[in-house]
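Appendix C: a fully annotated inverse folding record. The material below is reproduced so that readers can follow the format used throughout the book. The structure is listed first as tokens, followed by the designed sequence.
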């Protein structure tokens, strides 16, 4: 299903089952997009550009330091753009470059404790903003969200290629 094939109900989160009672992936996608539009705009104390936050998140949760070429690919920016960004992040004490032990010509970008603190602060800010909204949901809706958490976590793992 294409986005332009979705009804207003789909775009507003009506997740009717698809064929055979299965999840309607188009409606699910629309619900995630609708939630993301709201979620990424939640007020936060630490205001940083999206790409900066994305790089810090990739480094914090990627499981290991990354080469610039890997960050360029995952963040979908140009090599010069990533080099400039990492230089700024390094200057601000959020990342550091270290030689790659397996290739003396390359460097690995590591997140610092200060970089991790930004991620923790954003998480706390978002939690603070979401809690009163979640309290407005019915008990059934809160239970449905709680029950969906393992599937959403697994979907995120699959999307990151960690399956």
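Designed amino acids, in order:
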């Amino acid at each position: 299903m294409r986005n332009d094939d979705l009804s207003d109900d789909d775009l507003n989160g009506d997740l009717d089952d698809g064929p055979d009672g299965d999840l309607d992936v188009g409606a699910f996608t629309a619900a995630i997009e609708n939630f993301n539009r709201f979620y990424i705009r939640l007020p936060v104390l630490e205001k940083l550009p999206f790409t900066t936050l994305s790089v810090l998140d990739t480094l914090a949760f990627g499981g290991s330091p990354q080469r610039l070429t890997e960050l360029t690919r995952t963040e979908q920016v140009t090599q010069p753009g990533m080099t400039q960004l990492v230089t700024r992040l390094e200057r601000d004490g959020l990342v550091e470059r270290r030689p790659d032990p397996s290739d003396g010509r390359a460097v690995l970008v590591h997140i610092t404790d200060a970089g991790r603190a930004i991620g923790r602060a954003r998480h706390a800010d978002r939690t603070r903003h979401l809690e009163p909204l979640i309290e407005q949901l019915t008990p059934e809706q809160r239970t449905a969200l709680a029950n969906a958490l393992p599937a959403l976590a697994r979907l995120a793992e699959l999307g990151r290629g960690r399956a």
